Amino acid sequence: MPPPRTADMEHVFFPPLSRVAVCGGTHGNEMSGVYMLRELKKRHIEQDGPVSLITVLSNPRAVESCRRYIDKDLNRCFTSQMLRQVEKNLGPLTDDTPYELKRAHELNAQLGPKGSQEAVDLLCDIHNTTSNMGLCLILYSADWIPLHILKHIQSKMTSTPVRAIFIDLPASESYSLESVGKHGLTLEVGPQPNGVLRADIYNLVKEAVELTFEFVQKFNAGHTFEGGEVEAYTMEDSVDYPRDPTTGEITASVHSELQVRHDRQRALARWSPGLIFHSPLLQDRDFKLLKPGDPIFKRFSGETVTYKGEELYPFFINECAYYEKKIAFVLGEKVKLTLPPISVQKD
């Protein structure tokens, strides 16, 4: 069945976006969000007309230690089931309770509760990736508000492509922090090494945040955002590194001269010891179509490993944080999403 045409979609009305939360430091070594929060606080942006802005350093202990997390990945702790388990199991907090589970409980109480009318109207969580993904918005399900924010940012930003990754999960199974808000989105921006602040990446984050604020102001003022289409990449599968079947150790890397040629890869290697690079035909080629037969890995023994799946788009290529998850890259399909016109619901 073909997707609906914009002309066939009814105008959708939403309540005002009165409470907006901007979060950073969910992963403590992703620095753009940490510094963006500091800048917002310096500018004393807390109340902008009818909009109340909440800034939250999500994982302060991990930020202080400049680590992704202390005990557990905080950005996987927000499914409804996990939050219920947290509520039931925490009881009196003990030293044995994983720190990130405590923070999930606290953040859900502060910004939610998830799925309730008390939750913030819009939650924007800022992340960095070591992959060459530029500026991406990660969105759950067909939520028209963040999809229209994507469309608005795409129409205004000319300095870089603005892409979307679409995770088709119901709200109850959505696992990351932005799912606590009534509407939510993640800004994922890279490449940036862990623990480092790059000016070009920070400026992309700053522009995207300011355009999000601009959207909120226009929406609340009664502006109608017309319908249309946006492209997005769905998450279909992931590919692990080649491994030794006995030891489980990674058995592939890239030619050594490539590490010398590419300044960005040298920086990643310096800040992430042990990082193993992909074949030059895959490394840094996020969102470029991957076809059967394309080289993807180079074994330490010299052989080239080629791709054997269907034509899909790789992203999060060689993401440092995904080594522990046994993910070399994620594969997605490019789709078009049709948006209805939206505007604020008037009394």
UniProtKB/TrEMBL annotation:
<keyword id="KW-0862">Zinc</keyword>
<comment type="similarity">
    <text>Belongs to the AspA/AstE family. Aspartoacylase subfamily.</text>
</comment>
<dbReference type="GO" id="GO:0004046">
    <property type="term" value="F:aminoacylase activity"/>
</dbReference>
<dbReference type="InterPro" id="IPR050178">
    <property type="entry name" value="AspA/AstE_fam"/>
</dbReference>
<dbReference type="GO" id="GO:0016324">
    <property type="term" value="C:apical plasma membrane"/>
</dbReference>
<keyword id="KW-0963">Cytoplasm</keyword>
<keyword id="KW-0472">Membrane</keyword>
<feature type="active site" description="Proton donor/acceptor">
    <location>
        <position position="188"/>
    </location>
</feature>
<feature type="binding site">
    <location>
        <position position="30"/>
    </location>
    <ligand>
        <name>Zn(2+)</name>
    </ligand>
</feature>
<dbReference type="GO" id="GO:0016788">
    <property type="term" value="F:hydrolase activity, acting on ester bonds"/>
</dbReference>
<dbReference type="GO" id="GO:0046872">
    <property type="term" value="F:metal ion binding"/>
</dbReference>
<dbReference type="GO" id="GO:0005829">
    <property type="term" value="C:cytosol"/>
</dbReference>
<protein>
    <recommendedName>
        <fullName>N-acyl-aromatic-L-amino acid amidohydrolase</fullName>
        <ecNumber>3.5.1.114</ecNumber>
    </recommendedName>
</protein>
<keyword id="KW-0378">Hydrolase</keyword>
<feature type="binding site">
    <location>
        <position position="127"/>
    </location>
    <ligand>
        <name>Zn(2+)</name>
    </ligand>
</feature>
<feature type="binding site">
    <location>
        <position position="27"/>
    </location>
    <ligand>
        <name>Zn(2+)</name>
    </ligand>
</feature>
<feature type="domain" description="Succinylglutamate desuccinylase/Aspartoacylase catalytic">
    <location>
        <begin position="18"/>
        <end position="209"/>
    </location>
</feature>
<dbReference type="InterPro" id="IPR055438">
    <property type="entry name" value="AstE_AspA_cat"/>
</dbReference>
<dbReference type="Pfam" id="PF04952">
    <property type="entry name" value="AstE_AspA_hybrid"/>
</dbReference>
<dbReference type="Pfam" id="PF24827">
    <property type="entry name" value="AstE_AspA_cat"/>
</dbReference>
<dbReference type="InterPro" id="IPR016708">
    <property type="entry name" value="Aspartoacylase"/>
</dbReference>
<dbReference type="InterPro" id="IPR007036">
    <property type="entry name" value="Aste_AspA_hybrid_dom"/>
</dbReference>
<feature type="domain" description="AstE/AspA barrel-sandwich hybrid">
    <location>
        <begin position="275"/>
        <end position="334"/>
    </location>
</feature>
<keyword id="KW-0479">Metal-binding</keyword>
<keyword id="KW-1003">Cell membrane</keyword>
